């Protein structure tokens, strides 16, 4: 089964976090200088603790207070290529630490290898249209299904009754949808994701007639959900994992809250609506 979770971070909150960190750093620097100026009052010449130690203690206190701020800041600066380094266990028995690591590994869900996505506007690709790959796929599809999609499309565009033509050629409605799908992605066959906030999804097969009514309202604020993005078939061949995890789909459509609502100080992702269409060829194996 599929689930899609939405999590977001406010830009205003990020700026507030940065400003707070700068303010705390300035205050700590001022405090450190103040300790040094009053060193004589603390008996530095009488063998008492050097003022530098007091300054370090104060800085340590500052670090403890701002640990939450630093954590949020570091999360915003993570890079996929960086390994997750962190402090090792302290004052922990080796056997206990090893047991914890085994339990953590065993309980970790399988994940796919992450990678960066290059974003390109679809309009930018229209001047470099290369339909060779799409034409090859369409030819193979028509030979396998014994249909003439080009003729069907030209007849339908001339105003002839589509349902009648489907009956005469024994072609199902999803053939028409699949042809539109292949023609659209031929502009960029390598695409793995399509993003269009509140736009129109690109179906690979004919969707249910009541799909719009079946999309539930946002569980948090009650607003309607709108289409946001979809995963494309090319992504299937790129998904890699350390386990034997595999996934097959035609396209995966994600609908999210039209208000992008997010409760104040909320830390748990919100579940959104997902609609999966299988690969049309999968029906041949059933």
Residue stretches low in confidence (pLDDT < 50, at least 5 long) are: 41-45, 48-65, 79-92
Shape: elongated
Helical proportion, percent range = 40-55%
Query: What is the count of structural domains?
Result: 3
What share of residues are in beta strands?
Answer: 5-15%
| Class by SSE composition | alpha+beta
Major pleated sheet: 5 strands, antiparallel
Ends apart, CA distance between termini: 19 Å
N-to-C order of helices and strands: EHHHHHHHHHEHEEE
Oligomeric state of this protein: single chain
Radius of gyration: 29 Å
Give the helix tally.
10
The total of beta strands comes to: 5
Strand order of the largest sheet: 1-5-4-3-2
Please tell me the overall pLDDT: 73
GO cellular component, one term: cytoplasm
InterPro entries: PDCD2-like_regulator, PDCD2_C
Organism: Cnemophilus loriae (Loria's bird-of-paradise)
Protein name: PDD2L protein
Description of the structure:
The chain is an alpha+beta fold. The protein folds into three domains: 4-78; 110-119 and 189-286, no CATH class; 130-186. The chain is 41% helix and 10% strand. It has helices at 11-37, 51-65, 67-75, 94-107, 122-125, 132-145, 149-157, 162-169, 173-185, 211-214, and strands spanning 4-6, 193-195, 225-231, 251-257, 270-277. It has a five-stranded antiparallel sheet, with no helix packed on it. It is elongated. It starts with a strand and ends in a 9-residue tail after the last strand. InterPro entries: PDCD2-like_regulator, PDCD2_C. Residues 15-24 have a biased composition (Basic and acidic residues). Residues 1-24 are annotated as: Disordered.
């Amino acid at each position: 089964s599929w689930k899609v979770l939405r999590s977001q971070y406010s830009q205003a909150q990020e700026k507030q976090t940065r400003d707070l960190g700068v303010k705390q750093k300035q205050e700590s620097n001022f405090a450190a200088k103040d300790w040094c100026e009053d060193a004589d009052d603390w008996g530095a010449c009488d063998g008492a603790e050097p003022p530098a130690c007091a300054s370090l203690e104060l800085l340590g206190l500052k670090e403890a207070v701002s640990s939450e701020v630093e954590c949020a800041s570091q999360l915003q600066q993570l890079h996929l290529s960086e390994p997750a380094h962190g402090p090792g266990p302290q004052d922990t028995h080796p056997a206990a630490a090893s047991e914890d690591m085994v339990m953590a590994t065993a309980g970790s869900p399988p994940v796919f290898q992450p990678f960066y996505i290059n974003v390109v506007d679809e309009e930018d690709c229209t001047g470099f249209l290369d339909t060779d790959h799409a034409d090859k796929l369409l030819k193979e599809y028509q030979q396998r299904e014994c249909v003439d999609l080009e003729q069907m499309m030209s007849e339908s565009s001339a105003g002839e009754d589509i349902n009648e033509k489907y009956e005469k050629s024994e072609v199902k409605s999803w053939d028409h949808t699949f042809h539109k799908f292949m023609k659209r992605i031929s502009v960029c066959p390598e695409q793995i994701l399509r993003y269009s906030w509140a736009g129109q999804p690109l179906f690979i097969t004919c969707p249910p007639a009541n799909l719009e009514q079946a999309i539930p309202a946002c569980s948090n604020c009650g607003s309607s959900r709108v289409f946001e993005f979809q995963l494309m078939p090319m992504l299937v061949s790129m998904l890699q994992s350390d386990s034997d995890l595999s996934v097959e789909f035609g396209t995966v459509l994600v609908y999210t809250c039209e208000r992008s609502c997010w409760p104040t100080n909320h830390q748990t992702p919100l579940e959104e609506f997902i609609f999966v269409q299988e690969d049309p060829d999968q029906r041949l194996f059933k």
